[in-house]
TrEMBL record:
Residues 1-22 form the signal peptide. One of its GO terms (cellular component) is cell outer membrane. Belongs to the TonB-dependent receptor family. The keyword Cytoplasm does not apply. Residues 49-170 form the TonB-dependent receptor plug domain. This is TonB-linked outer membrane protein, SusC/RagA family. It is found in: Cell outer membrane. Keywords: Cell outer membrane, Membrane, Receptor, Signal, TonB box, Transmembrane, Transmembrane beta strand, Transport. GO terms for molecular function: siderophore uptake transmembrane transporter activity. InterPro entries: Beta-barrel_TonB, Beta-barrel_TonB_sf, Plug_dom, Plug_dom_sf, TonB-dep_OMP_SusC/RagA, TonB-dep_OMP_SusC/RagA_CS, TonB-dep_rcpt-like. It comes from Chryseobacterium oleae.
Length: 960
């Protein structure tokens, strides 16, 4: 039998566990059999593509092979339809924001659930410390080298079997398995370096900074002082004594420090993986060990992982099959402060004065004024901090999966699954006592332990039967999932010497915390499938889930789906054309749940010391009517295959409506509040179901094998996908909710910017201008008279990717492009970094303003005339700092050569492949003003986090 792995109508190759699942169909010749490809769906179940009535997109091992990222969530952008991803930052090992068919909630969980080998696992960040709370990623403890395929389930029929958690999508990860045959060994290694993927705004040189301040003072005083005159103190009496002293110090400074150069380096990266697999008719095995290390371009930021996996399958009898999957890993992350922390090196390059030195004449670090250990503008020397402080997390993860399958009858199978997952996260924050945040404390140490124990139990009964051309299948599923978390944290201050870093050396207790929480859910589900010769197909499912945290009477939710399809290519007159190999129409609809963390109970928190007596505080507002967020996805699709699926086309329309959105409603603070994700309390709000939200759009996918031959012939395939998204709030009880930069309102998206619209600079006098009505027409230089208006969304409205693969005589070139259009990014620190004089004396800001601010000789500049104290609120929130996130990126390029045959004869090797690879090598931003990575638009703001990386690597794969 000639097994072919073909490009499918769902837009990808499907093969699982290193074994191609095939069913015999009409023979092409006496020696060639048409293969029906198979995709993994819910709870480890498999379906051929011809049987699918829902929407699923898959990436296989070929499409993710050797991609130099730490975790699988960073691989999805542009490779499957309907999925947008963006890195929260360039933190090595950090997580990616993943959105499947838009934003399914306003205040709830918007990330999909992750299923590994049929079992849900922890995902996202589990950290609690400043820095690690948003940048650690438990999925990074799973080695991508162990992944065989990733399937994204998007519609009701595909996801409803997961019930209460499926509203934001389901990502199914299948890991590699052994297959029959002699032992196969594979060793792979790649190594290279990292650079910054997108150039950021530059910082000031000392000369530029002095020039800018000179013009700022002269504009304000209507004078013409030189740098030398200001250095000599001639502004005395014309500005405050403090400002004059600072100006004199800056203008007379001999230093010119580039604070980014102080902390920047080339980031090194390497990955090594060794695996063995094999087996016989009774027993198959797969084992692998992996070592991964990734370093940022900024000092003291890295991710390291060691992992091991073993996967065994034993056919004990004709009826009994036992499979085990065991994964164990340990990782270590060093991360850095972001946002407005003075220890943030990305902020320091814009906030530290270039006229301050970084080092003393003897080469030691300059720590500023001995009286307060601060630089001239009270900032920190980030070079010293990165050498002497740290924020780190060490994560241990163990995952086991026991799967017992017993064939009761020929067509009836029972499966039992038990899968525990243990995660232990140790976090340490150390601030030395000599400089930086730890100076005022005399040293600071925070240590915490965060332990999760999750387990999943499944009982599954599968039935399938064929009656002539009638095919019937059904499943009964029982699932229970529980998570148990224990958290301990202690903080100490004041240490005798910087060389002592353990908690016991800090002599003053500064705080402690200890919590424990459990949550559980269980559910029952039934699925059914019928098809007539795969011409007419019908699917249906029902699931009832019970969630522990809701009140009695509201704990349960009922979820269901129905789907239907018809493949006209199965009709005889179409078969006879020999051109059309698939023409399937399909549609689905259903009701899903959305993950929720809300708690409806009114509780007391017993954590107050009142005169050394135990006391309680009240939080949360009792709301017995609080219920599930539910999602109703409608999907209709057309799958076309031509020339025996050498060319495939998929087109889909989806409409996903979320009901009973959970959001914060305002209350009097005396009535209580809610618990934030970090454990703090926020008074004056309650949780309630407040409205509805709709995500809708189209998805298109095209794949073609243009040339197809053996190794010594030209092979060329191309593919492209495009998705659209419209996100809209359709009901919002209680009315519009506005902030200084965003809005929630009927008719707009759930991630909409709400800003005054920048109209540029008045060429006559350098004043800032805004549109009065927030859109167009009349302008004003009075910020308070300008109206706010909706100015776009975080999310791209058009996004996707394209790929091509060409090979000839062992040489192979693979290219993957991604793109996105319609999204926006807001620079949430620009009111400081483009302050037009308001903060410029203290915080220099972006050096990009040089040569582009208004002067009588430069009236067409983009930035207003700088004025000491600011120019008419020019730096306040507006579209001046809102950028188009439209981009095209070469996300991955790989060129390699594979040695086989006579060249390796006698060596004992089956194949040797050498390659060079580049990741995020080229990015084109259509908005020339954008100086941030465009894929951060899912977050909406930049927060001056670590920059996203591009990587260049050399690698070798050896099999024997």
């Amino acid at each position: 039998m000639n097994v072919k792995l073909r490009v499918l109508s769902a837009g990808a190759l499907f093969f699982l566990g290193q074994t191609a699942f095939a069913q015999k169909a009409k023979k092409d010749t006496a020696s060639t059999t048409q293969i029906e490809e198979v995709v993994m769906v819910g709870f480890g179940q498999k379906k051929t593509v011809q049987e699918i009535t829902g929407s699923a997109s898959t990436m296989t091992a070929k499409s993710i092979e050797d991609i130099p990222v730490a975790s699988v969530d960073k691989m999805l952008q542009g490779r499957v339809t309907g999925v947008q991803t963006g890195s929260a930052s360039g933190q090595p090992g950090g997580f990616a924001n993943v959105r499947v068919r838009g934003i399914s909630s306003i205040n709830g969980v918007t990330s999909p659930i992750y299923i590994v080998d049929g079992v849900r696992v922890a995902n996202g960040s589990l950290g609690t410390a400043n820095g690690t709370s948003s940048l650690t990623n438990i999925l990074a403890n799973l080695s991508p080298d162990d992944v065989e395929s990733i399937t994204v389930l998007k519609d009701a029929v595909s996801t409803a079997v997961y019930g209460a958690d499926a509203g934001a999508g389901v990502i199914v990860i299948t890991t590699k398995s052994g297959k029959k045959g002699k032992p196969r060994f594979n060793l792979s290694f790649n190594s290279g370096f990292n650079q910054q993927a997108v150039d950021m705004a530059r910082n000031y040189s000392a000369g530029e900074y002095k020039t800018y301040l000179r013009d700022m003072f002269n504009n304000s005083l209507n004078s013409n002082y030189s740098i030398e005159q200001i250095a000599a103190g001639q502004l005395s009496g014309k500005i405050s004594a403090s400002a004059n002293a600072q100006a004199v110090g800056i203008m007379s400074s001999p230093y010119d420090t580039n604070w980014l150069d102080i902390v920047r380096k080339d980031g090194y990266q390497q990955n090594a993986d060794f695996s063995i697999s094999g087996g016989n008719d009774k027993f198959t095995y797969y084992a692998a060990a992996n070592m991964f290390e990734q370093n940022s371009i900024i000092m003291n930021s890295f991710f390291k992982r060691l992992s091991y996996t073993t996967k065994l399958s034993y056919q004990a009898t004709d009826k009994l099959k036992i499979s085990t999957d065991f994964q164990i890993s340990h990782s270590k992350t060093r991360t850095l402060s972001d946002g407005g922390a003075f220890s943030n090196p990305m902020l320091a390059q814009y906030f530290n004065r270039p006229t301050d030195p970084a080092r003393n004449p003897d080469g030691s670090w300059y720590l500023g004024n001995p009286a307060n250990s601060r630089l001239s503008n009270n900032q920190f020397n980030v070079g010293y901090l990165l050498e002497n402080n740290y924020i780190q997390a060490g994560t241990f993860r163990a995952f086991a999966n026991l799967n017992v399958e017993y064939k009761i009858l020929k067509n009836l199978t029972y499966r039992f699954v038990f899968s525990p997952e243990y995660v232990n996260l140790e976090e340490d924050t150390y601030w030395n006592p000599l400089h930086g945040d730890g100076y005022t404390y005399g040293g600071y140490q925070r240590t915490s332990m965060n332990r999760y124990f999750n387990f999943n139990v499944q009982n599954i009964l599968d039935y399938s039967q064929k009656f002539g051309k009638h095919n019937v299948g059904a499943s009964l599923i029982q699932e229970a999932y529980k998570t148990d978390r224990k958290f301990l944290m202690a903080t100490g201050i004041t240490v005798g010497t910087p060389s002592l870093e353990t908690l016991s050396n800090f002599i003053v207790p500064y705080g402690f915390s200890g919590t424990r929480g459990t949550s559980s859910r269980y559910g029952y589900a039934a699925t059914g499938h019928y098809d007539y010769d795969k011409l007419i197909l019908v699917d249906a499912s029902y699931r009832r889930d019970v969630l522990s945290q809701f009140t009695p009477g509201s704990k349960a939710g009922n979820f269901w789906s129905v789907g239907a399809g018809v493949d006209l290519a199965r009709l005889n007159f179409v078969k006879d054309m020999n051109v059309i190999s698939m023409a399937k129409f399909r549609a689905s609809y259903g009701k899903l749940g959305n993950q929720v963390t809300a708690n409806p109970y009114a509780l007391y928190l017993y954590d107050i010391n009142y005169n050394d007596n135990a006391a309680a505080r009240y939080y949360n507002v009792y709301n017995p009517n609080l219920s599930w967020e539910t999602v109703n996805p409608f999907n209709v699709g057309l799958d076309l295959g031509f020339l025996r699926n050498r060319i495939t086309v998929t087109a889909e329309y989806y409409n996903k409506k979320t009901n009973d959105l959970i959001y914060n409603l305002p209350l009097s603070p005396s009535q209580g509040g809610i618990t934030n994700d970090n454990g703090t309390l926020r008074y004056g709000v309650m949780l309630d179901n407040v409205g509805t939200l709709v995500n809708k759009g189209f998805e298109f996918n095209v794949n073609a094998e243009i040339f197809k031959g053996d190794r010594n012939q030209v092979n060329w395939s191309v593919g492209a996908n495009l998705s659209t998204l419209k996100n809209e709030i359709t009901e919002l009880y209680g009315g519009t909710v506005n902030t200084a930069t965003t809005t929630l309102r009927v008719g707009e998206g759930a991630r909409s910017f709400y800003l005054r619209k920048w109209a540029g600079v008045d060429s006559a006098n350098g004043d800032p201008l805004w549109y009065l009505n927030g859109k167009d027409g009349e302008t004003t230089n009075d910020y308070n008279k300008a109206q706010q208006a909706v100015q776009g969304s975080f999310l791209s409205t058009i996004f996707g990717g394209a790929n091509t693969s060409i090979s000839y005589k062992g040489f192979a070139l693979d290219l993957q492009f991604t793109y996105g259009f319609g999204g926006k990014i807001y620079d949430n620190w620009a009111n400081y970094t483009y302050s037009d004089g308001q903060y410029s004396l203290n915080y220099p800001g972006y050096g990009d303003a040089m040569g582009d601010y208004w002067t009588p000789q430069n009236t067409g500049a983009s930035n207003p005339k700088p004025m000491y104290g600011g120019n008419k609120l020019s730096n306040q929130a507006s579209t001046r700092y809102l950028y188009d996130a439209d981009y095209i990126r070469l996300s991955n390029a790989r060129f390699g050569y594979t040695f086989t045959g006579d060249f390796l004869k006698g060596s004992g090797l089956n194949s040797v492949q050498v390659y060079v690879m580049a990741n995020n090598a080229w990015t084109h931003n259509f908005d020339d003003r954008l100086k941030f990575d465009p894929e951060t638009n899912i977050s909406g703001t930049t927060n001056l986090s670590l920059p996203v990386l591009k990587s260049y690597l050399f690698g070798v794969n050896v099999s024997f």
